[in-house]
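Page 42, continued from yesterday. The earlier attempt failed because a stray header line got pasted into the input along with the sequence. Redoing it now with the clean sequence only.
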Amino acid sequence: MKLTDIKSNKQASVMAGGVVLVVVGLLIAQFLVVKGSQWYKQTRERRITKATDSVTPDRLIARCGAPADDVTTDLYPIIRRTMRYKASGQRTFVFTFTRTADEPQNWVLLTMKDSVGGASFETPEAKTSALSCLDSTK
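This time it went through. C-alpha cells are written below.
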C-alpha cells in the first residue's frame, strides 16, 4: 500500500462520515420540526377548548360586551338564560345557558347557534371562529 492510497482512503472515510452526520442531523431536524408543530397545534387546541368550555354568562359579557338581548327563564328547578349577540350583517349568535336553582354560579353552556341559518357550533374551533371574542388570547 502506498501513502497516497492511505490518504485517499482517509479522505473518503472523512467524507462518508460527514455525509452520515449531515443525514442524521437532517433527520433530527425534521423530527424536531414535526414534533414542534404538533406541540403548537395541541397547545392551541387546548387553549381554545379551555376558553370555550369555561364560558359562563358573566365571562361572555366580560369578553364580548353586553348582549343585544338577555332573557332569563325560571323553569324550576332549572334556570335557563338565553343571550343574543349581533354579528356581521344579519347574523345573530344565540347562547343558551342553564343552571339549577340551588347553584347560582354553576352555569353550563348548552348551545351556541346562528339564528339566521340555524347552524349549531359544536366544536371549540367553530365557536371561536364564529365569534372571535371567545378566544382567550384576544
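Notes: The two ends are 73 Å apart (CA to CA).
Reminder to self: strip header lines before submitting.
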